[in-house]
UniProtKB/TrEMBL annotation:
One Pfam family per UniProt: Aldedh
Alphabetized InterPro entries for the sequence: Ald_DH/histidinol_DH (IPR016161), Ald_DH_C (IPR016163), Ald_DH_CS_GLU (IPR029510), Ald_DH_N (IPR016162), Aldehyde_DH_dom (IPR015590)
Family matches, as SUPFAM superfamilies: ALDH-like
Any one GO molecular-function label of the UniProt entry: oxidoreductase activity, acting on the aldehyde or oxo group of donors, NAD or NADP as acceptor
Record: active site: 251
Native organism: Actinomadura montaniterrae
Name this protein carries in UniProt: Aldehyde dehydrogenase
Family listed: Belongs to the aldehyde dehydrogenase family.
Length: 482
């Protein structure tokens, strides 16, 4: 079993202030994989103090954007050399199929680094704006300060890169807090950050539990918190940040709707639903989990979904042929099975799947892909985020009702519409209240496009120019006329 006894604090590997550790358990074998040092309150204080010194006194915020871009590109080159190792770690600790880990968990963040560096190179760091009263006003975009980046386990490298790289490009310093389920890939990233030449104090990486995370986001030395996680936890983070007037960006839960119009191909819709979330066994915040279909074609869509999802190859995530692995934990498995039982109890029709183990699987935290039809919008499985491979097929009478059902949710992270008429699809997209949307596909995580939600899905944006702006303050400078 791998054992990591040190934390990466302020650019140095150092012993933690406590004797606690995190045991990483394989979701496939249910056996321990590694033991990792767990950060405590004293370690957070050390990391924030190092970040504070590096920001207030060090060279990093005062370097030119070109120099910061060069270091990020160096980090990207090192990342590319280790991407197979990173993918293997994510497969082992999270149960992500190795093919999905290589493609989405690692290759996507790797390409994002270069794309975000390109955006920074073209960013208007300083500009002149004509003033109303005479002389121009000079606008400078300056780093916001010390950033606490809190990342969940489901897409750890994607979400880390979406927070950490824009923060570094902006000139911020950062304390990264990975989830206790996924510390191994985060510690490998710390090694790459050290090798890339990021100055001392600029980045710390602290695997820790929820209590330590709560201490970090409430720390008075932090200027901005970037948090991805559940809506319930997001509310607690927002309250903690409000006490210190700390800036905060929240990317929270989702219950995204796929609206199939009457001319949509059921097979194409089913394929999009499969690729929107089944690679991580439905543990994706923007997965399409509510499928809204014309009432007179509901049976077609349910059967197409059942055929597509039941054909997914489930098993050992290290096997390149595996298409869906286990859920991350026994607790998550119990949670998803409870929702399946609730769907049956409330009267939805189970088309495929259920609470039993997949065929041929004897151990691990697995749940079969499950499809319900005849789902009413008021049912629990149509309203609450399940975070597992459970799809609710909901019939509607006309387009207006479809839009009403899509909007009848506390969430607003993502959504999609499927139709042969793209212009009509764009019209539907304009009517659904969500931060991101896809037409004839699940939402594509393009690094040029801002990603985030509305309503209980949070606020703020990551990626794109808007994501970089989230780590910048705008300073206005006016000069007296001679």
């Amino acid at each position: 079993m791998d054992e990591r006894k040190e934390l990466f604090i302020g650019g140095e590997w150092t012993a933690p202030g406590t004797g606690r550790h995190i045991e990483v358990i394989s979701p496939h074998t249910e056996r321990p994989l590694a033991r990792v040092a767990a950060a405590g309150v004293a370690d957070v204080d050390r990391a924030v103090a190092a970040a504070r010194r590096a920001f207030d006194e060090g060279p990093w915020p005062r370097t030119g954007p070109a120099e910061r871009v060069a270091i990020v590109r160096r980090l990207a080159a090192l990342y590319g050399e280790r991407r197979d190792e990173l993918a293997g770690l994510i497969t082992a600790e999270l149960g992500a199929p190795i093919s999905f880990a290589k493609r989405a968990q690692v290759a996507l963040p790797w390409s994002m680094m270069g794309a975000l560096a390109d955006i920074a190179e073209k960013h208007p760091w300083q500009e002149n704006r004509p003033g109303v009263y005479g002389r121009d006003v000079v606008l400078r975009r300056e780093p916001v300060g010390v950033v606490a980046a809190v990342v969940p386990w489901n897409m750890p490298q994607f979400l880390t890169v979406a927070k950490l790289v824009p923060a570094l490009l902006a000139g911020c310093t950062a304390v990264l807090k990975p989830a206790p389920e996924s510390p191994l890939d985060a510690l490998l990233l710390a090694e790459l950050i050290e090798k890339a030449g990021v100055p001392p104090g600029v980045v710390s990486v602290l695997p820790a539990d929820r209590d330590t995370s709560a201490y970090l986001v409430a720390h008075p030395g932090v200027d901005k918190v970037s948090f991805t996680g559940s809506t319930a936890a997001g509310r607690q983070v927002a309250a903690a940040c409000a006490a210190n007037l700390t800036r905060v960006g929240l990317e929270l839960g989702g219950k995204s709707a796929a609206i199939a119009l009457e001319d949509a191909d059921p097979a194409a819709v089913a394929t999009a639903v499969r690729f929107s979330g089944m690679g991580m066994a439905g543990q994706i915040c923007n997965a399409l989990t509510r499928v809204l279909v014309p009432a007179d074609r509901a049976g077609e869509h349910a059967e197409a979904l059942a055929a597509t999802l039941s054909a997914i190859r489930i098993g050992d995530p290290a096997d390149p042929r595996t298409e869906m692995g286990p859920l991350v934990s026994a607790r998550q498995q119990r949670r998803v099975r409870h929702y399946i039982d609730t769907g049956v109890r409330e009267g939805a029709r189970l088309v495929t799947g259920g609470t039993g183990m997949p065929e041929g699987v004897r151990r691990g935290w697995y749940v079969r892909p499950t499809v319900f039809d005849g789902v009413e919008p008021s049912m629990t499985i149509a309203r609450e985020e399940i975070f597992g491979p459970v799809i609710a097929v909901i019939p509607y009478r006309d387009e207006d009702e479809a839009v009403r059902i899509a909007n009848d949710s506390e969430y607003g992270l993502a959504g999609s519409v499927f139709t042969a008429d793209v212009e009509r699809g764009l019209g539907v997209a304009a009517r659904v209240r969500a931060g991101t949307f896809g037409v004839n596909q699940g939402y594509s995580m393009d690094p040029a496009a801002p990603f985030g939600g509305v309503k209980a899905s949070g606020y703020g944006r990551e990626l794109g120019r808007e994501g970089l702006d989230g780590y910048l303050d705008v300073k206005s400078i006016s000069i007296a006329a001679p």
